[in-house]
Amino acid sequence: MQLIDTCLRGGLKLDIKRIASIALSLPFLVTTVALANTDIFDDLPPNTSGRSGGSRGCSTQTVQSKERIPALILLAPTQQGTKAVATNPSFSWFVRDPGSWQLEFRLYRYDPVSEETQLVKEIKDDSFTSLPGIMTLSLSESIPELPVGQRYLWQVELVCDPNHPSGNPFAEAEIEVVALSTELKTELANTQNKFKQATLYKRLGFWYNAWDVVLNTEQTPMMNELKSSLLEKVALAEQEIVKVRTSAINKVQR
Fold first, then answer.
1. Residues near 14 by Cβ (< 8 Å), separated by ≥ 6?
2. Are 140 and 88 in contact (CB under 8 A)?
3. CB contact at 8 A, 41 and 47
4. 224: enclosing H helix or E strand
5. Which of 81, 113, 156, 170 sits CB 3.0–4.6 Å from 45 for a disulfide?
6. pLDDT over threshold 60, residue 73
7. Which CATH number is associated with domain 2-253?
8. Closest CA to 219 of 193, 239, 248
9. pLDDT tens, 103-146?
């Protein structure tokens, strides 16, 4: 990241794919690429590590509380657990503000040979809008299964004002698709209990899979407790955990 920051402070017009490649080359990194507010990068906000910067969102009626909860938080671990065993994982994030605002989603694949990123999927249409609370996106209808052994970068942007994109809440995170081990496959086959499955994923560090089970299962007290423990890898403060845990879950299929 020091290399990126140094170049950007110098005002160099770097290629966005190259910048993303540098960020992805760091092991198990979950980050938002830091970009300068120049003409070429005006639509790309600064580094926020899986969350939008500050507390500014789209709604002008948002009460600025002491908690200063970010307007956009990706439900992705901030340090470890970026691996997933599902080849069609769901992507989930939290939207703080009420109302309906246009969203943009992008999924990039990292090429270890060229050290560049390739756009796999982009969603940016008028029907793709935000809902307050947790949003979980499945791409099973629009793209084939993701190959095992590949690393990806996914991005979510909340479009507050298309004429001033540099002010849009924006975040990105990494995910790596790995093979399902024989041991894990056997353990999963031996239980149909969703809580036990999610707990198994969490114990082995497959946080994306654990989130997928939790958010697509009836929210029992045990599931809510597990959700809180998962949020400890996402949220930075107790008020964020409480806010996200008690939010509505909105499912989107593309």
1. 7, 8
2. yes
3. no
4. helix 221-231
5. 170
6. yes
7. 2.60.40.10
8. 248
9. 999 999 988 788 788 999 999 999 999 999 999 999 988 888 89
